[in-house]
Amino acid sequence: VLCVKEEWDGCMPVPPASECGGNEGALGSVDGDGMFAVMPCVDPTTQRQMTVVRCATRAQYEAVVDRQLAAWKQRWRDETMPARGQVLRVFGERLRELKSELGTLIALETGKVLAEGEGEIQEVIDICEYALGLSRSIAGQVLPSERRDHTLLEMWHPRGVVGVITAFNFPAAVWGWNAALALVTGNAVLWKPAPTGNLIAVALTQIMHSTLEELKYPKELCSLVAGRTPVGQWIADDLRMGLVSFTGSCDAGRKVAVAVAGRLGASLLELGGNNALVVHADADVPLALDACFFGACGTAGQRCTTTRRVLVNEAIYDSFVHALVAKYEQHVQIGDPLDPKTLVGPLHAAASVERYRAAISRAVQDGGTVLVGGSVRADLGLQFVEPTVIGGLAHNHALLMNETFAPILYVIKYATLDEAIAINNQVPQGLSSALFSLNMRNSWKWLSAQGADSGLVNVNVGTSGAEIGGAFGGEKDSGGGRESGSDAWKAYCRRVTATVNYGMELPLSQGISFTN
Ligand code: UN1
């Protein structure tokens, strides 16, 4: 299971801290053949250590990137786009065959429920198919030239190696969006997964390696370096990275952005959200209730698109909140993520449980009321918590301005749509927003420039669960990057503006005459 081990045979002595990608990592013995900096892979349901993954050392990292660059120049940069698309086609087919096994591995490693684990693999399959389509359709353009007998063109070329740093909560799909588009546009991909998402990363990388080798390409085109923050820093600081794509918290994203900008590099940031779902007086209430339930409880509240705030119009506030609480009471099924009946698995890490506990006790201290949930379910395991709804806090209370990555939903009462839009937009993040209304004026206003200021803006659809066909990403502290569909592929390319003169003269632009 240790891909690093496969590539780096033999014993590796413990490297000095400055050269090791596992700063907070345990030092462990692997197979009794030496000491390594390792990361434990822990099942969040039982806290059982399943295995360990060795952290890359600085020397290993350097060698991996060198080999990637060589493979890229030799076999990938100049390959045709339809041929690159075939790699994604075959890879996607393999994933289709293994969807249930890979979905189960995600559930085991992250605590996500089975249906969502499989859904994530489906998302990778979908983006592979999307990339296959792009491989026959990506187009530059021909622009009008002001000079006679000249053609003005725009073309898109690969950037080189794309560093992809992913978060624990979508340990497969986020890499999939990045890798599929980066590969089809002609880049090599270096993946640093979250320390709690290493197993699915190893599995996907091995499937990608066998696909590449079967199609006679070097496997180094898609490499994996496991590690903690130092490995992410090496990627951010590395001039050889044509693009750094980072998914994670706003705080970590800010550090990556500064490091990459410091070397004038390109970054693509997909950071936190603080997403509101607005239920207007003219809403289809059962629809809004379902959307709220999935948006707030799905993935145990650990999506960047999770519904964190529900703004309810004063005319229906009491009845809506009553129905929402009843829905939680009847349908929240917490338990083993591998049991198909479970809707809410454990939080992925012990630290998340602490953050959940701290947010709820602060809310209560400051006058909030727990309407449903609110407790850690120690009877089920150390990392199980109840999805929680809290009322009674001001819309600009610190807890509602920040993202707590746990299933806590705050309810807020508002009077007019303008007020709801203002509350929706007052937070620093701007990833996803949803309005439930059957009124055309309200809906279009919400979607307009006067409306929600996030990257994803929905009507009668919840905040989470975006399809791959649209561009995915947010504004403000959510990072500003766009991944997945639409023209997100452009981020993985360098743009070339080319002018070709097929005439006998050399006219200068702007009509300048440079003769005497
Ligand atoms: C994330 O949580 O980082 O829209 C991504 C969604 C998913 C992606 C979430 N398709 O909820």
UniProtKB/TrEMBL annotation:
EC code(s) of this entry: 1.2.1.3
Aldehyde dehydrogenase domain residues: 39-494
Membrane found in the keyword field: no
One Gene Ontology molecular-function label: aldehyde dehydrogenase (NAD+) activity
Superkingdom: Eukaryota
Catalytic machinery residues: 270
Record keywords: NAD, Oxidoreductase
Entry-linked Pfam families: Aldedh
Enzyme class label: oxidoreductase
Quaternary structure annotation from Swiss-Prot or TrEMBL: Homotetramer.
Family statement: Belongs to the aldehyde dehydrogenase family.
Protein name: aldehyde dehydrogenase (NAD(+))
Organism field: Porphyridium purpureum
